[in-house]
Protein 1
Amino acid sequence: MSATSWAWLVLLFPLLGSITIALGFRRTSWRFAGIVGTGAIALAFVCGIAALITLLGESPDARHHTSALWEYASVASLQIKLGIYVDPLSVFMILVVSGVSTLIHLYSFGYMQSDEGYHRFFSYLNFFVFSMLLLVLAGNFVLLIVGWAFVGFASYALISFWYRRTTATRAGIKAFVINVVGDIGLVLAAFLIFQQLGTFEYTEVFAKAPQVFHTNEWTVTAICLLLLVGAFAKSAQLPLHTWLPDAMEGPTPVSSLIHAATMVTAGVYLIARTHVLFVLAPTAADIAAFGGLATLLVAATIALVMTDLKRAIAYSTMSQIGYMIVGVSIGAYSAGLFHLMTHAFFKALLFMAAGSIIAAMANEQNIDKMSGFGKAMRFTSVTMLCGGLALAAFPFTAGFFSKDEILAYASARGGMYLIFTILGYFGALLTAIYTFRLIFRVLGGKPCAEAQELIDTGHGAHAEAPFNPATGETEDTDIGFPGAVHHFAEGSPPMKVAMGILAFLALFAGFIQVPGVDETITHFLDPVFADSPLAAIHPTTSASWFGLLIGGLISVAGVGIAYLLYVARPDTPRRLQERFAAVHTFLYNKWYFDEAIDILVVRPALAVGRFADNVFERIVIDGAITGGTEETVGRAGVIVRTFQNGIVRTYGLFLVFGAVGLALYFLIQQS
Amino acid sequence: MAGAGFNAPHVDYAATAPVIALTVGLVVILISGVSGPTRRWAPGLAVLTLGATAGLLLWHWNDRIDLIAGALRVDDLAIAISLIAIATAFTTILLSIRERAADEAGRGEYYALLIGSVLGMVLLSEAENLVTFFVAIETLSIPLYILCATNLRREGSLESGLKYLIVGSLGSATLLYGMAFIYGGTGSTDFAGIAHGIEAHGMLHDPLILIGIALALVGLAFKTSIAPFHQWTPDVYQGAPTPITSFMAVATKAAAFAVFLRFFVVALGPETGDWQMGLAILAAISIVVGNVGALGQDSLKRLLGYSGVAQAGYMLGGIVVATEKGAGSLVFYLAIYLFMNLAAFAVVVARERETPFGDDIRGVRGLGAERPALAWPLTISMLALAGLPATAGFIGKLYLIEALVEGDYLWLAIFIVGGTMISLAYYLRVVAAMWMRPETEVGGATPAIAGASPEADPVDPDAGRRWYLVAPAVLAAGITVFLGVIPQPLVDFATHAGASLF
Amino acid sequence: MNIDWYIVLSALLFTIGAIGILVRRSPMVILLCLELMLNAGNLALVAFSREVGNGQGQVFALVVMVIAACEVVVGLGLIVAIFRRRLPLDVDDLRELRG
Amino acid sequence: MEAVLFFIAAIGATVGAIGVVAARNPFYSVLALIAHLFSLAVLFLLLTSAFVAAAQVVVYAGAVMVLYVFVVAYVGSAQEPRWDPVPGQRLFAGLLAFFLFVEISAAVLSSGLRALGTHGPDVPAGFGDPAAIGTLLLEKFLVPFEATSVLLLIAAVGAIVLAARRRESINRERPLGEGVASR
Amino acid sequence: MINALLWVPLAFGVVGLFLPRRAVGWWATAGAAVTLAIGVIMAFGFENGAAGLQDTVDTTWISGLGVNYSLGIDGLNLFLVLLTAVLWTGGIAFAAFRERDRPRLFFFLMLAAETGTLGSFLSQDLLLFVLFFDLMLVPFYFLFGAWGIDRTAEGGPTAARATLKMMIYTLIGSLLMLVGAIATAIVSAHGGHLTFSIEAIQHQGVPVGSQRWIFWFFAAAFLVKMPAFLVHGWMPDTYRAAPLSTLVVFSGVLAKVGAYGFLRIVLPLFPQATTQFQTVILLLALGSILYGSVMAFTQTNLRLIAGYSSVAQLGFITIGIFALRADGSDGAVLQMVNHGLVVAAIFIIIGILVERSGTEDLRSMGGMAMRAPVFAALFLIVALATLAMPGSANFVGEFYILNGLFESKIVFAFIAISAVAMSAYYALRLYIGTMHNRRPDGILSREIGLRDGIVLAPLVLCILGLALYPQLILHRADPSVQQSVSAATGSEGGTVVTTEGKAPELQVIR
């Protein structure tokens, strides 16, 4: 079987899974849904492997194939096929996506067990995976947009999965609308591409682009910037990031799958996929890079002060994606994608751990209320530690190799790109600090009430009445609200398995891409980026190791600082907080991005709406146009009826008047 | 030469037969009216007369005969119009059954006058000579003056009679004066002679003729109730006994328009360039006046009166263009106008006999549920008058507008369209009253004629089931729809009639 | 005497009659004024008939006389009927129909 | 000579007309009209139309006016108040009538018709005498002639319908004055 | 065949007048279904890739006036006809499940309206088109007026008043169109034989000077019908007054007749004028899009949200047509069908919601998804289609439209596309506001009944089907679309102008 047919299967299984679960929600048990869901994704993963194998069986430069099912919408010179494009890049993405998804499904199997919307959850989850795979496999821009929008929808559906929570629905609609803005960017980019190149097919576009455009021509720059709108919206980069923290309203597996491991990295994939265009538009590429850098730092700073466990991790996700964006924009393609992979592992893991703890806390997410879970939940805390280390790029963990490779490349490219190296390392420091801030405060310290109960009784705490952690309003446990029982790793084998595997990967996945030793990813992806001049730049092995050394030191330092602040002298943070109150509030309010957008976009729009409704519609449409006419006609009627006064002599008068008038007309009209 | 044996003119009795039939009928009915027992036959005799006349007229279809030294001309136009008049008269007779006015006036006299008026109309539509024209128009009007007043108990009836008489005579005096000038300018009273005289005496664009045209136009405009000579229309329509109103609304208009057309196209043909625009302006005025006047009228008869003014404006367009198509469209419109109006008036008669509201719009409230057999005809006639498709009204408008646009009078066509839009407001208001929840603003003070005055009390509680009221309504409505779907026959008929002038 | 004198005279009479109809309120007088107008017409007809030299105008005038008579008869009849109904013999007061 | 007669007659006619309009008592109006009609008859004679003149005197000044007098006597001749309830009625009436007069005269005077400025063509003897009129009436204008007879009949019927004694139904409500023989 | 398609509904309606009150609803549904069946059969008989008319009828109707009874099917109207048949079946079925007074009359009018609408889609004679264009309105006048809802309580007009407003508004347009049509025929005849056949007129050509004003007469009619920005004054009152089951077909189909008219008549017959006034119309359409969207997310009455969103959608369709490119118009045709299906589904859903909640106000609704997962799912699909979710046929439609606009008038495209974001907002607002969030007391969340299910589900299936294979429509529509668009664009200084000399220009005032 050819790689493409495997790829089609990859798409098929999740879709089938989703539909089956959806249709069978009345007749089948929750267990069935879980198994089918997980199984479907696992099958997809297997097919992915198969595709990989078939691909490896071919010569490196022949490793790209297209295949189309049917003419989707092809008339009037537009050619839109239902077609996919298989090459190392897409296969790489398939594997990451389906792989991580499988594990997260496994986790959810346990975690969501007592939720009333179990079928819905798995159906959505499978549908998401299908969409994500469609996104990475799409063979033309239109289908890319389709996948792009589908994941957007899936993310919306899962964010507002507990749809009776107003907070959840609001977060959902926010995420969706911002993503639509991204879609619009893509659509416009597609139009522009079609206008310039007359096609939507990847292969043709990438083939024609170098001939048609010369470097930094405004058209190609415009195309790239429009693509970036899409990429930034999806990957939660400044200034389109505000939806991501709110997205944490969704169930934890969702955060871990969509808002950590897979969907949010779509932007990275997009830039990598269209690197041909970005190479032609260096300006746009730099803009992207700086955008990434800004996000990286801003998010890191915010993560330092977040007290909401999941939101903190979410911000760290933003900042990590910042790294990837930087990577793929400046030309460190394989490095960026490598970081994408490792980040998928450890960030998913972190969320799972967090989810496990939050479950133990009966949905409480505020870390100020947490402490001492180290003793209470051994497994969870161990895995969380692994994730933390990887995130903090602790030497020889996955994050260690991947992050530093990007920075190494930046320094290798030199020039102004050194900025990225330097600030990147600074970001790394912050990362280490906030990561371990979380770990120390949640795992360390003397057990809080819940943790204590866990230690004593062995099963999790139950809030007397379920409530919404965001607003505190009480809830029932029926459909549309979280389930009655909270499951956490210690109590549920499937979750354990998933977290275990990920922990392993978080620690050791780095070794497949050790500078100078084995650069598996790079070699595998080379054929894709062969055409990019930037791909030629390679940091020397020694330089890379030097970079790794610095990175290692920085991360250790960061961990040290965190230890100092949160374990050794627990009261320093407060003092710092009081000393730099202004800074703290500024960071704590997330740099006031939400407020800014609210003032700049939302309120004006509503104001216009209100104006249109209350003023324009009333006065112009009903008043002037409709009413005005009625008025005039009515007036005329009144006049006519006044002269119809019933006095016959008046009628006579008018008759004579008419006669005079007519006579006059007839006499003068000839002369 | 004085007293020298004069040679009697050749009289083609075959062609004059219809007129003779009417005259004879008139006399017979009068006689029948004298004695009690025979009085009951009067309506029957009237119908008989009309039938005979119609038959005799149809017999001459496609002829073009000049009668009695060019006093009359029997051609398709004349026949078509006469038939319309006769049909109207026939329906009027049906509607007059059990009408108080008929008894007040005495059956014989009532129907005799009706026939007399019809005689006037037939003469008028055939008139080809100023004298005949004038005599005919008076023969048409004077019986109507009387008939309007025949409901002697109702003040309104008398009032309408007097008003009609005064303004009418004023109109005909003006008409006469205009005729005098035209005669003076051309030295002839025959239409043909006038046309010839205008050119022979080089009177083209001569003030004398023009003033004549102007004054004659006033008279004709009055009879066809064109604004600003329309003001008698609503009052008289409302005051007169409803059957008579229906007769006036349709037959008078038809006959007057016929002679209007003949006079302007045949006699004043040479002057066409002079009067076209003038007529067009009049048409526009009466379209506007009629339509806005009808807004918010609660009395249905009054409403129909105003709408009649507006419709007259539309029809005048057919004369304005002075083309075959124009004439055809005019005849067509007159023909369908007959059906559209009769349907409405039959319903009005029924309702004012069975409800205490008289002809007030409240009389038709909820008619759709109560008396579908009446509601449908009224609805159809309203929709047709508004010119909505699948009714004859649409075809009529189409025909007119086509004629106008072909005759380069597009702006008048647009006036017609504009008028139609306004007209929807009041036509549909009637429809709404029948089928929909009562509008809030209808009702309030009861008009003087309706409810309040004792004589408006229901005289016949189930008039809405009388065959002689329901049948005409349903039939007329049916024909309206039929002609809306299969207009071809009537179109041919009208085109024919129109063509006979040229 | 030239014809146009007659015509102008008839015009004068015609307008006087018109004024009469417009300013008088007694239906009887209004009828008389109608007579005036019709007679003005007659004068014009006769004058024109003299001017064109054929008798048609005169015949027309005769016919008009008869018609005038008819109108008078009907008019008077109406007046009597109105009088019988004890309605005011003033056209201004007969204004039940209006609007 | 002719001119003198014309002017006398013209003035008579005009004065008569004005009298009709001006007199506040219908009875005087009738008398004024009669005067007017006589002077018109004179004018007709001047226009060599003897028969019309005769008819004028007989039909109008005779029959019709008698009828008028009867009716006036019957309904009583109420004095008409001076003021006009309808505002501006008199003003407009005067103005319009004046305009009308001006227009007509202007038309007449500016007409290109030669004959207007003359006495008219020389006409054969017997122009407008009964014989000539009769011939015309029976040859050319047969139809109008017959029609007018019908019209007279109709008018008579009308008069009956309107003025004749009602059936008791109404009489009870309203006692009648003397019935009028309006034939 | 085509005659059957046209007259079957009316025939059923007339017979229905004489059936017992119980049965008439089902009889009517059957009638609509039969029509649908005929339509489907014709669609199968349709020869793909052919531009010309198929399966035509052409007989003289009024010889004196040059009016012919001529019908025909081509890529432009095939799917609109099907849409009509589908929606009427749905709407009537939906109505048949509900009690109402005077059912015979109701269903008679519904079916009469179907005939009228089909007629305006099928007729190939200018005058016949105008006739049906007006005719289809009359039944709705009665339907809205007699079975409508009085809003006097909330300070609105009575049903009768609202529907009168609609009549006058829409007839203003169509009466002007009548004049326009006649003028077109006369000037294009150049004094020769008068004909209203669209093809013939297109062949003879309309003199440019006359095109300029005739264009506006037609535009007026179509824009009001849509309704477009500034002339939409009748829409809110009407939509609030109308019974929902009639609104399903009204907003689903009648609005499309306007857009269809542009493609069928204006572009081919008045090419120069079209190119000349392109920008003006585009501006108006843009107005509709933005204004409609903005209004849609401020309204709280469900009907009005749907109503204004259709204003916006029709705006999209219009700009698609007036991009004057094949792809734009292809998209427009596709979008007409899509929007028809979607908005019909929306109104059915609103109907169900209102029954469940007893209110039409978004603010007092919520949480209805809880016990109605299937209903929620159907609604969700419809909502996503409404906001032109990529992967839906609506997206393809908008994509084609906007691409066309992008190619011809790039600035307009940038402005227009912003409305997509707004549509996302108001569509979801509608969905979430009703189905999600906490459930106020007194609002029951019940699963959709089988009876409504069999009405709604097929529509949703159609939506999904088209989403998978929009090519189905595009492919068949394209040849005809190419034809009418090329008529408009290919003619700058082209064939038609040559007739100018021959024809006397017709001025409004001579």
Protein 2
Amino acid sequence: MLTRMQKIQMLKSMMIIREFEALIKKLYKEGDVEGAIHCYTGEEAVAVGVCNALRKDDYIFSTHRGHGHAIAKGCSIKKVFAELMGRETGLCKGMGGSMHLFDIENGLMGGNGIVGGGIPLSLGTAYASKYKGSDRVTVCFFSEGASNQGTFNESINMAALWKLPLIFVCENNLFAATTPSYKTLSHPDIAKRADGYSIPGIIADGNHVLDVYEKTCKAVNRAREGEGPTLIECKTYRVEGHCMVLKDLPQHRPKQEVEGWADKDPIDILEKELMQDEGLEKDIREQLYKEIQQEFNEAVQYAKTSPFPDINEFMKIANSRYQLCEE
Amino acid sequence: MLTRMQKIQMLKSMMIIREFEALIKKLYKEGDVEGAIHCYTGEEAVAVGVCNALRKDDYIFSTHRGHGHAIAKGCSIKKVFAELMGRETGLCKGMGGSMHLFDIENGLMGGNGIVGGGIPLSLGTAYASKYKGSDRVTVCFFSEGASNQGTFNESINMAALWKLPLIFVCENNLFAATTPSYKTLSHPDIAKRADGYSIPGIIADGNHVLDVYEKTCKAVNRAREGEGPTLIECKTYRVEGHCMVLKDLPQHRPKQEVEGWADKDPIDILEKELMQDEGLEKDIREQLYKEIQQEFNEAVQYAKTSPFPDINEFMKIANSRYQLCEE
Amino acid sequence: MRRISYLKAINEAIQEEMERDNNVFVIGEDVGEYGGVWGALRGIYEKYGAMRAQDTPISESGIIGLATGAAMAGLRPVAEIMYMDFLTTCMDPVVNQAAKADLMSGWQLKIPMVIRTQYGIGTREASQHSQSLEAWFMHTPGLKVVVPSNPYDAKGLLKASIRDDTPVIFMENRLLYNDIQDVPEGTWEIPLGKAKIVHEGEQITIVSYGHALKKVINALNEFNEISAELIDLRTLVPMDIDTIIESVKKTGRILIAHDAVEKCGAGAEIVRLVIEKAFDYLDAEPLVCGGLGVPTPFSGKLEDICMLRTEAIVGKIQYLLTGII
Amino acid sequence: MRRISYLKAINEAIQEEMERDNNVFVIGEDVGEYGGVWGALRGIYEKYGAMRAQDTPISESGIIGLATGAAMAGLRPVAEIMYMDFLTTCMDPVVNQAAKADLMSGWQLKIPMVIRTQYGIGTREASQHSQSLEAWFMHTPGLKVVVPSNPYDAKGLLKASIRDDTPVIFMENRLLYNDIQDVPEGTWEIPLGKAKIVHEGEQITIVSYGHALKKVINALNEFNEISAELIDLRTLVPMDIDTIIESVKKTGRILIAHDAVEKCGAGAEIVRLVIEKAFDYLDAEPLVCGGLGVPTPFSGKLEDICMLRTEAIVGKIQYLLTGII
Ligand SMILES: Cc1ncc(C[n+]2csc(CCOP(=O)(O)OP(=O)(O)O)c2C)c(N)n1
Ligand SMILES: Cc1ncc(C[n+]2csc(CCOP(=O)(O)OP(=O)(O)O)c2C)c(N)n1
Ligand SMILES: [Mg+2]
Ligand SMILES: [Mg+2]
């Protein structure tokens, strides 16, 4: 059972992700952050619910929309900011950027710029756990768009076959780039596909962090016990446009749908539950907000004043890694 | 309803395929046929059952194990022999060979050397039918090994989504190369996967040609009516080794299994049914056998005396198609 | 004449061909109502409907497989792959199916299809969104490879590609999409396999294509006086080697510049051909200037040094002219 | 010393490395009980069990993805892809994941993995089973490419590849599998990036690798008297360009022979490098001799003319030596 404190921590984690994305949007507009940036806004309950069910040494594979996963898995916010600003002090020394956040110490095995590209990779760490007799589990995040890549079929079958300690978490946020999911999914429930591979296919309320958390815990137990993979589909909603430069078509954002999902805001939902069930103080969200802003100020300051990667240093490593001297 | 005559034709078709493979094995050993040869022996009811439910102008996509499909779809036996012997008079002028039989006039859109490679191609002819408002259906043959390729997931979803007139026929023959299917299928029924894509997933007795035929007819009707794809899994057995040069491991061919399937020989089954239900004469199989041998003698004679492709002719075409003159 | 953008030129080419031939259709991710994430296909869905502007799931092998099969059935698909880097997810249908089907079938089949894809580097999108992979497709017999560098060529070459009866990899660079140029209306096309001499010159031949051409022009502007013959290849397969050779015979010097990395790139191939056909005319060694042979790092500072650099082009031209490094 | 086959050499290399390091395992289609369809892995399943000799479904992207992820977790996978042609079905994990992960992660990760694959032409298996695609992987920064031509090298290079901390494409040719040679036991390896001078010579340098080398040797046997320096590259990335250049500086002439088609192939790359580094030493134009640039037709008569041909090698050597075609 989660303690009150833990639940408040989850509330805070979701708020951190929410505020992180808001700030990144601002930094992007101001030119401090460049490249392809995909916000996780509205989906916070998935990353936070899932990652809270994991240990630090469990593995996760992330996507192009990976800020939330990184934060929920415990990466240093400073380093994430620095990475997105292309600094030497970034998570990946500025080599990865928004779509390629790696933090091996915290079990973050990378985002991916290729939709569906991370799915087969996740087989590997799960295989390694089984190989070494370790109980570390792997979570593979992907969204409903990726479920239509070939890698989905190949990976889920292999994982099921060998009962790998692997949890497929499909963040069904109803969009892939500009395309609503009803145009790309022949069955609206990705979870349904699990039957064909003899593994459990579970649907979670992706805007309800405790539901995600509980269902993940079950899957994690199953995985640690050697009983094999689970496919968890978290139904959620991509609140923002696909990325900084792609706007949605109005006909794909019906007012009713947008409002319906706004009413299901994952942070609001948890806050309300905490108030009802745990007698949470009314102003705690404001307090948390302040803490977060404080932390962010320092982190952004750190990132902005960090050096860019050193070109000579890079060339030195590159020369030996890629045999450039041949040229 | 099938007439007695039609059923006898089906018997004969299956026998032709059976004898064709036997003869090809001989020709291979004698050096008249080269390359990668995969026999369809034991699976005849699938090709014959399916193709009898089709019109000449319906499309089929075949596999590396494609002789049966070609014969059942009505290709000239002479030309198939000639193709396998690499002759100018072959179906594909000797350019394709055993794994790449194309006969566009008869709707045979090609075998494939890439396992799972034909599946997405089949979307294309099906799409073209819908595009042109034509009622031509497409059948895509593949075996259970191919069902684990990524292309399976991508294609079945797209076909379902757009209700393409496409029938996926999985020939589950329990082997992929040297590997028995229980080592590669997380669920023994491929048909089960259909649920995840909102299409019917049907299991047919792949050694019972009338069962295959009837289930295909239903799927064809569905497809012609614009109601979309069906996945039909035909349970059958690969009687021979994977190809001419790969032998099976004895532990993967338990005596009981082999004998069980021998008792379910598709030709015997149909013959018996015809005798019981249609009062088929006892010696008809022998008669058909003689007809077939006669036909084969002529066909092989034709193939063997056909010229090999002309090198100059080839170079002329190649030069313009591939701009070799640049070199 | 009207001045239109590269993007608009692409759009016009497709619409004109769709108008002319009912068998032409577009397919790809977000290409329906949205008109493609780059916007190249705006208005097509509205005008021609969903079957001819087919939005797809994220299933590149499915898309290219479908296109290949549709071509077998007589249609003329124009598929869009958002970034060239994503062609890694559908190499089989491109290389083993589309490129080979006509030969394998003993010429029963034609495969008239275009794969429009967007390539290049320079937008801080890191290593999986920065590749120029034309060399892979040049190395695959059966494919044509087209890389227009400007709106006029984009239109004329795309029309020719759509009319061509074999599979064409049509490469567009996102940094060119907003370039504007005079582009005539009407039924003209630019034949595949004809290079364009951008300007004539006597001292050195420079061969380039696509976005790299701009960097070459920038580099040439660095010289006070230089008589360079600049060739825009336009199509890499078929390659207009005659135009290159003729030029080299005149200038005796050649530099090839492209975004792709140098190792086994198009430049190396051109060096091979020039050496084979004009060795005795050379006054200096043919050189290639390309991207740095590393996966592209995200950070702008690092990406900048990984791209084809104007200064590097300048340096190599200088060396070829003077022998001084 | 014992004489063992190429196949056995591969097997020994793997078993020795598996013995030495628990993290090494093999994975691929039919590699378990069967020991791989080529038989390279016989006995490994029996000795090391299913986890270390993992039979897979026909899911090449899954296999290479798994291998990459396993390498991230510290294992050292050795994956088998039955024919190089099938790498088309898993280019993404090879090119965008395995090759780039160490850089993308800011060097947090190493990706020690070997992709053993079997390539070549000549067995009447038609266009989808006859390709030599090394150039694609040379063109992809982050991969090493190794192509042993004999049992000794196969063992020594495979051991080095398994010990290497970066992804290696290890290419074996089915026509070499039964070749027999003296191969020592023990812990030696052949460093990646060192070519072998098969024999020294003064008149011409011939560079080759893998199965093509045999055809070069056949071609040289056609000459009564010739002093050719024959270089077996052994690894294409890293390439031992120094050995090539040194040789060319001595002979002034070079021919590169490989199975792959010439356009954008490894040969073109070597020409580029030789031109860049030894232009002034050349007495004749560097030439490439490769396969015909077409998809391989099935019929033996046609396949034979599509392969790298001994006569073509002879012709080009003759031309380089005499100037007469
Ligand atoms: C193989 C591939 N195809 C296309 C893209 C371009 N792309 C990037 S994100 C995206 C949409 C992904 O949708 P989904 O998987 O649902 O993830 P979401 O953005 O909803 O998190 C697309 C099409 C890509 N990066 N990789
Ligand atoms: C992509 C790919 N991987 C591997 C192979 C090698 N191969 C040829 S046939 C075959 C087995 C195919 O099994 P299945 O799909 O069940 O077809 P079946 O042989 O049973 O008809 C394999 C592994 C191939 N041709 N293509
Ligand atoms: Mg989505
Ligand atoms: Mg099978």
